[in-house]
Amino acid sequence: MELDQSYPAISDLAARARRRVPRFVWDYLDSATGAEATKARNRSALDAIRFRPAILSGEIDPDLSVTLMGRDYALPFGIAPVGMSGLVWAEAERTLARLARTEAIPYTLSTVATRTPEHVGPHVGDQGWFQLYPPRDPEIRADMLRRVRAAGFHTLVLTADVPVASRRERQRRGGVTHPPRLSPRILAQVALRPAWALATAQTGMPRLRFVESYTGKSGALSSTAHVGYLIRTSPDWGYLRWLRDHWDGPLVVKGVLEPADAVRLKAEGVDAVWVSNHAGRQFDAAPAPIEVLPAIRAAVGPGYPLIFDSGVAGGLDILRALALGADFVMLGRAFHYGLAAFGARGAAHVVHILREDLKANLGQLGLGSFDGLADRLVHRAHGCDDRPPEGRST
Ligand SMILES: Cc1cc2nc3c(=O)[nH]c(=O)nc-3n(C[C@H](O)[C@H](O)[C@H](O)COP(=O)(O)O)c2cc1C
């Protein structure tokens, strides 16, 4: 792939994406909340995880496939839900769904995507997960689940780390509103980004089409206030039980950072816990997920599926998460950097980068599979020893 020469890293795609989308779109995609300290901590905490390279391991052709919740995936990573995905690049949801189907990795459609499950379902094949921001109204709730299921999405993800809206100061400063309003300032930004403007003009201004299908006639009733009322973002344990009773497929809870919560979720019949701090977008004093992952693994025991995200920027980060107890890793922004940089080709290039990076780093570790990653960790507390983290089965 020739992109590999000029854009060998996801950071290269991010740099190009920044030049191709209007400023307010970049602020929406790239910002976190508060002083964005948690976003920075996600990066530094991942960088702090080191491995001991191996020598004289012979030829290695690693197996990158994994099984998660009874399904086989070709790679140990997938696409996290991103609201207003189609604002970043036109038809983002459809493009990413197709990519997921081609690569045999999961694609998670957000409740607040710009396209409906019915629109995306035919493109995603058997790789569709759906992320729920829970509606208040029980009838709407039941209808959403019915539609999601009928559109072919088999795994339901309840996002639990948005009990209230976060302030997202950089987004506010940048003029981001929901739905986007074409103020003179925003129009001036759009005028500087003709490729984005052209692509977006062809599909129409991005809207929350799934949610709007419940707000009556579109337009007047699609205000943030109305959507905010419809989507109750502060579910409780009773709500979770209702969901468990009404969704007969795999159920995942996203945004978990506490070992005790993970244990309780497991006991409630949740099929996997998604360890995440929402890429630092919700709470600026949250721990980095990689810091709490070993304790969560120890608490839930071996064999219980754990998914990880927040700040993953390459294959090495995926290995770090797998070594510390995750079974699977999701990425949100990386795929959107690829999309905004080069459309479908850019998103596919993200998969290429991650796959090659996984192989290169596994080779350094002398490993033909993800088993044994934990044994190659450098343990900071004990100097350079070879003990696996407490609580791991391997
Ligand atoms: C622009 C943007 C929008 C997001 N929208 C949602 C969403 O609608 N639902 C959700 O559960 N998480 C959402 N997230 C969080 C992602 O699912 C994921 O947890 C996070 O992006 C992972 O970190 P990464 O972007 O560093 O890979 C969003 C993240 C971003 C960057």
CA-to-CA gap between the ends?
37 Å
Instruction: Tally the beta strands.
Output: 10
Proportion of strand residues? 5-15%
Which small molecules are bound? flavin mononucleotide
Total domain modules: 1
> What is the tally of helical segments?
18
> Numbering strands along the chain, what is their spatial order in the largest sheet?
3-10-9-8-7-6-5-4
Radius of gyration: 20 Å
Shape descriptor reads globular
- The percent of residues in helical segments reads 40-55%
**The CATH C-level class name:** Alpha Beta
Strand-and-helix sequence, N→C?
A: HHHHEEEHHEHEHEHHHHHHEHEHEHEH
Structural class call reads alpha/beta
Considering the protein shown, what is the CATH homologous superfamily? Aldolase class I
The oligomeric state is: single chain
Determine the CATH topology. Answer: TIM Barrel
Q: Can you offer a commentary on this structure?
A:
- With 394 residues, this protein is of the alpha/beta class.
- It has a single domain (3-382), classed as Aldolase class I (TIM Barrel), CATH 3.20.20.70.
- Helix content is 45%, strand content 10%.
- The chain contains 18 helices and ten strands.
- The chain has helices at 3-6, 10-20, 23-30, 37-47, 85-88, 92-103, 117-124, 138-150, 169-173, 184-191, 194-203, 209-212, 224-230, 237-246, 259-267, 289-300, 315-323, 333-364, and strands at residues 66-68, 71-73, 77-79, 107-110, 128-132, 155-159, 251-256, 272-275, 306-308, 328-331.
- An eight-stranded parallel sheet has the order 3-10-9-8-7-6-5-4.
- Helix 17 (315-323) crosses helix 18.
- The longest helix has 32 residues, at 333-364.
- The structure holds flavin mononucleotide (FMN).
- Flavin mononucleotide binds next to helix 3 and helix 18.
